[in-house]
Amino acid sequence: MTIAEIQTNAKTRMEHSVEAFRHNLTKIRTGRASPALLDTIHVEYYGSMVPLSQVANVSLIDARTISVQPWEKNMAAKVEKAIRESDLGLNPAAMGDLIRVPMPPMSEERRKEMTKIVRAEGESAKVVVRNLRRDANDAVKKLVKDKEASEDEQKRSEAEIQKLTDRHIAEIDTLVAAKEQDIMAV
User: Fold this and answer.
1) Disulfide: which of 10, 39, 99, 184 matches 136 by Cβ 3.0-4.6 Å?
2) Highest taxon of the source (predicted)?
């Protein structure tokens, strides 16, 4: 493996970790409703547990209400039960074969708790990026030790990997700040 390959690999893996963090942020509740909030819910469907999105259409009615439209009428009760029993604290209401999921307003205390969760998630995403930096630098040091690269190339590579790391950590910080602002907006 060459230094360029190591850097490319590190960059790709850092981008994947930031993307995974971005995806995790969609699951954290804000004051507004979001269909992504129900992505973690699984429903029993003919003996197996499947994601809610595979048995129903999930969409927004307005800023505070999610609608869930099961594709089969007999699934409505199971879908409603799964949403109610999830750890999201939601209380769905069935209206015929349509299930309305109103988002209760969050208290100031709950908003602060959610921002702490977002910061903790952001910190763990930064740790992943830093670990990827360490792994890349270790791989470059191994090349130098095996006499496949010079020490000058090692210094340049470490500087480049550090720039990559700084850029991805700044992106994580931006995502955290945006999500905190979203949560604290009433």
Assistant:
1) 10
2) Bacteria
